[in-house]
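A quick aside before the break. I want you to see a complete sequence-to-structure record at least once, exactly as it would be stored in a machine-readable document. Don't worry about memorizing anything.
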Amino acid sequence: MWFKHLHLYRVHSAPELDSETLASALDEHAAKPLGNADARRLGWTAPAGRLGSGQRLHEIQGHRLLSALRQERLLPASVVKEEVDDKVADIEASEGRKVTRKEKTALKEQITEELMPRAFVRSQKIDLWWDTRRQLIGVNASSRTRAEDVLDLLRETLGSLKVTPLTSQTLPIRAMTQWLGEAESRPADLLLGDQVELKAKGDDGVLRARQVDLDSDEIQQLLESGRQASKLAVSLEGRLSFVLHDDLALKSLRFGDALIEEADHADDGDDALARLETDFILMAQALSDDIPRLIEWLGGEAQREAAAQPDA
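That is the input. The structure line, written in tokens, reads:
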């Protein structure tokens, strides 16, 4: 149950709900099978899957774990186009006339509606961690768009929710570039990994490097030419490693061996549900300790007026 990615948000205000009330609200917005006409749907599911007996909320020491299930029908545009082309050809051959653009659009809508119930369904579970003490939310999603979708669902579930993306006083791209170019500027507990993405200020595109020595002369020369680090692999004392992005997203998260071993040696009695909760609380505590440290290295958290921000 270890997160792979993390998009972070500051909670400015949210309804104060106890666990029982929140669990009931999640049940009201639970995931349901897609109807024949539904292209996609998002609802809450059990983080433990079938092992959780339908339990959609796990709350331990102020840390909440929720999971959203995103279902989407896959209907390739090429399949629709082929059907439309065949239908157009039949009409033109039988009626001896050209099919208008308006008619083609109507045919496309009709064929899409007919094919949708037979389309394959792709399901994706997206986990959300809510630190109620630090008023921080982290979404385990590969993209910010997916994270925002889950926040919209949470907002609908709660009735209201004001959050903004977590931001720092120093822009990550500026701090990462400095850490990369000036070894003495790196915090004592921060170590560089072996991958980086360098952006040019002009139109020279993006350079990506993996499994490289980031202190090499080649990397330093690229920095001297004006490139900036938009992504940088770092680790914190071997406890947590990730690729830091210029929007403060943490990707390719990996937790330290000591933490994983602690989870492995926990006395959960081979109970899968207990194991999930053990993994979650150890992960949540590590994140709640290390994220503030990262923000401190980035000059502290930028203060944003919640009233001036959209509910997202």
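Two observations worth writing down. The first strand starts at residue 7 and ends at 13. Residues 272-297 form the longest helix (26 residues). We'll return to this after the break.
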